[in-house]
Amino acid sequence: MMIKVAIIGSGGISKSHVQCLTKISDAQIVSTYDVDFQRAAELAASCGAKAYSEVEEAVLAADLVYILTPPSFHKDLSIMAMENGKHVMIEKPIAISAEDAEQIVEASDRLGRLAMVGFNMRYRQGYNKLKRIVDSGKLGPVLNLWSQRMSMGSQKGTWRTNQLQMSGFTIESLSHDIDIFRWLSGSEVESVYGNVKNSRDDLPGYDDNSLVILKLRNGYTASIQASWSSHLDFNSRGIVGNEGTAMISGKGTWNFDTFRYKTNRMDNEFVESFDDPLNADSYLEENIHFIDCVKNGTKPITTAKDGLAILQVSQAILQSSRENRVVTL
Ligand SMILES: NC(=O)c1ccc[n+]([C@@H]2O[C@H](COP(=O)([O-])OP(=O)(O)OC[C@H]3O[C@@H](n4cnc5c(N)ncnc54)[C@H](O)[C@@H]3O)[C@@H](O)[C@H]2O)c1
Prior knowledge:
By secondary structure, this protein is α/β, with parallel strands linked by helices. Helices cover about 35% and strands about 30% of the residues. The model has no long low-confidence stretch (mean pLDDT about 95). Nicotinamide-adenine-dinucleotide binds next to α1. GO terms for molecular function: nucleotide binding. This is Gfo/Idh/MocA family oxidoreductase.
């Protein structure tokens, strides 16, 4: 069974998805759309699809619609696609407000359409090393998780910093860290304390630094230290357990090249070099998964409900920072 795909939003991330979808034998990209028609046309030419100047026409040509626009447009586009009987793959973050996200969840339930939110980090090699070791029990009872990622993000002149379209770093980018913590712990976030800052006088309202402590319902604690205004580039993610500690690290915000762990039973730490840059592999796995879900009518691993839960955590972090207090979800 061939799944016909529409691509709505033909910018940066669409290229990663299109590259992957063209490798999946059960998927065929049939239509593209962008408010900038030229972009849709170029993308369509790269994959043998047709570019449309009306979004509804692009949607109607397909079985499955990829919503790859800035997040402020995700709600209207995804609901329109589901109302036309289509399944949707929505890039993260699901939306820019919990109210919008709730409407997407409601439409997916009411219309019986699959809505996956694209948290591709779950398919990264590095995070899977952490997931396997924590699930193996080798680290013992978990005390805390961390995500530290520092780099210089140059976002001027894009929707990410445009007053009318921005969702901000804490909503857009921290959605990945929050998703990974929920996945590694198997638990929801109970409360947060956040300190969110804007380093740029020329980009009012744009948060680019978030320092966050999260408490999870199962008792784990977690921290996020994330900056898009750091003059040094590095990252590390890890887990401290009672009987062992594991971490991955690498250059920049998203590249992992080293996995280390040590437990009480080991004399020396285990160190492994591996190559897990932020490339198309995780998007390929993500796309294979969702095409399978659409073919078989099965639930995706990251649904609109997950997208909503994650967005609520981001909003609680922002509220915590504004009010300088712990916010309970
Ligand atoms: N999973 C990841 O790692 C990852 C990485 C990058 C971006 N993203 C997400 O992907 C989405 C898009 O980001 P991007 O980096 O591709 O942005 P982008 O600016 O490169 O592309 C967005 C495109 O959407 C088009 N667009 C704007 N409004 C539209 C509308 N109403 N209808 C149709 N097209 C419209 C723009 O013209 C542009 O071509 C965002 O939600 C972002 O957070 C996810």
